[in-house]
Amino acid sequence: MHTHSPTWDDCQQLLKTLFTTEERERILTEARKNVPGDNGRPTTLPNLIDERFPLNRPDWDFGNAEGRERLRVYRQTLMAGLRAVARRPTNLAKVKAIMQGENESPAVFLERLYDAYRQYTPLDPLAEENQSAVIMSFINQAAPDIRKKLYKQEGLGEMSIRDLMKVAERVFNTRETPEEREDRIRKENQELQERIRKEDREHQSRENSRGRWPRSCWQACKAQSGWDRVRPDQPDRGDRGPDWIGDSVQTAKSMDIGRGSAPSARVKQGKMHGSCWRGWRVTRGDGTRIPSPSLG
């Protein structure tokens, strides 16, 4: 515009050719806000605004100095309006909404970030002074696995966008394929199910063995009926139990259970572990012993 020195008519033709009706209205509105007053600062006086930036074709004589000066002020004001419209308002929410897709490469994601900065902010994403903002957006809005890897880097605050791209590309290229992921999940599920089954078997085994005598003690006593013939009113003999139940081997004569009992009720040469007896001698609230234990 300064090179070709367009007239007022030329400026209108350029506006109609290069911009839509809405854009032209915005440009003219912003330009009228920048009409200089007598002190050189933008004025709000309507008469000065209409005089120095007319919306209708003015009767200026471009052959004299006054007409050329009026045209110079008009062109200068129009350029101010163009710059005001071209300066986009900052909308960082739009930039933060740019997230890396699941299968999007880091290079494509970074390019989308650059475009968002250009479109929604007045910042140049390639300028050195704006690199910190671009780096933070790249890290925080990257895919979860890439973001996690970037956060673990030592000296993260000193890394350039090029350094971050190398790490991101390495993570992206070593990702497992969908088939590999399905296979890994299937194996993990199988291992989990096997572990649960094993725990169930161990729990069931503990439940089944609860309240039973060790088979070695039962076989050593050799007298299932002897358990049933223990008299409930027999005095408590402490942890050792009755004389015939102890840690030492006793003969049939010293282990006669109840006078006149059948021979099968005699405990033939054998013994019972003291720890087994201590576990069995739990009594009910009425003082009687619990029923004889079953064969373990």
From TrEMBL:
Gene3D superfamilies assigned: Human Immunodeficiency Virus Type 1 Capsid Protein
InterPro entries registered for this protein in UniProt: Gag_P30 (IPR003036), Retrov_capsid_N (IPR008919), Retroviral_Gag-Pol_poly (IPR050462)
Domain of life: Eukaryota
Pfam family, one: Gag_p30
GO biological process: virion assembly
First and last residue of the signal peptide: none
Domain named Core shell protein Gag P30: residues: 3-173
Region (Disordered): 195-296
Skewed-composition ranges (Basic and acidic residues): 195-210, 228-242
PANTHER family: GAG_P30 DOMAIN-CONTAINING PROTEIN
Listed name of the protein: Core shell protein Gag P30 domain-containing protein
Organism annotation: Rhinolophus ferrumequinum
